[in-house]
């Protein structure tokens, strides 16, 4: 049998695929909405985002551009439209697109990328408060109607709200002295500090603001 020129055949296939890819990428901006702006300043997107299976996605700021760092990929991000940012089409790593989402308080708290033919949601990793700071927040807080909440600390780094007849709610650190409840993204629990002392707990949700005095 004659020798089969596999190298020549696959080289031709590679050339055709590369040409098709270049033609496809030339239309990458077809769905772009013009004259839009990001909802936040660039620093509002900066942070570390996590996914249980895919690990950590880091969004940094380099000069006047955002920068994506994911596994071995490190590329600049430029604004595409609204809260979507894209990398350039890199010869080695290809093109990446990140769409950012806000929480009910208006802060950027999720980054969505398409990986393995599906949308993957990376959740922003909050900063951590030191043990001594968390310990100062523990205690009993009472509402004007007499309802009492107890704030306790477990494993030196997790705060919980405990109330009679209700499941314990873990408080997820948000910023300053504010926390969120994992199952209720619209709720903010803020500890009130006056004169260096924690004096109250304030719960805010779409229906209003409720104050619990520290006992």
End-to-end span in angstroms?
93 Å
Main beta-sheet annotation: 8 strands, antiparallel, barrel
Shape from CA axes?
Answer: elongated
> What CATH first level of the largest domain would be assigned?
Mainly Beta
User: How many β-strand runs?
Assistant: 16
On the 0-100 scale, what is the average pLDDT? Answer: 91
Helix percentage range: 10-25%
CATH topology of the largest domain: Lipocalin
Number of helices: 2
* Shape-level CATH architecture of the largest domain: Beta Barrel
List the helices and strands in order.
HEEEEEEEEHEEEEEEEE
Number of domains: 2
Give me the side-by-side strand order of the main sheet: 1-2-3-4-5-6-7-8
Percent of residues in β-strands: over 45%
Derived structural class: mainly beta
- The unreliable regions are none
Radius of gyration computed on alpha carbons: 25 Å
């Amino acid at each position: 049998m004659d020798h089969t020129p596999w190298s020549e055949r696959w080289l031709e296939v590679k050339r055709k695929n590369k040409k098709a890819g270049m033609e496809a990428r030339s239309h990458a901006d077809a769905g772009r909405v013009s004259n839009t702006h990001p909802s936040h300043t660039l620093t509002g997107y900066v942070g570390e985002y996590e996914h249980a299976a895919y690990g950590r996605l880091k969004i940094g700021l380099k000069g006047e551009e955002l920068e994506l760092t994911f596994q071995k990929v490190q590329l600049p991000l430029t604004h595409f439209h609204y809260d979507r940012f894209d990398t350039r089409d890199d010869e080695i790593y290809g093109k990446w697109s990140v769409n950012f989402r806000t929480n009910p308080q208006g802060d950027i708290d999720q980054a969505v990328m398409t990986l393995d033919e599906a949308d993957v949601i990376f959740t922003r990793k909050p900063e951590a408060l030191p043990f001594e700071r968390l310990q100062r927040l523990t205690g009993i807080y009472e509402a004007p109607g007499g309802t009492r909440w107890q704030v306790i600390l477990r494993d030196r780094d997790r705060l919980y709200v405990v109330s009679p007849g209700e499941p314990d709610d873990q408080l997820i650190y948000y910023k300053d002295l504010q926390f969120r409840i994992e199952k209720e993204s619209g709720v903010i629990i803020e500890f009130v500090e006056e004169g260096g002392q924690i004096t109250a707990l304030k719960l805010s949700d779409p229906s209003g603001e409720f104050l619990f005095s520290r006992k």
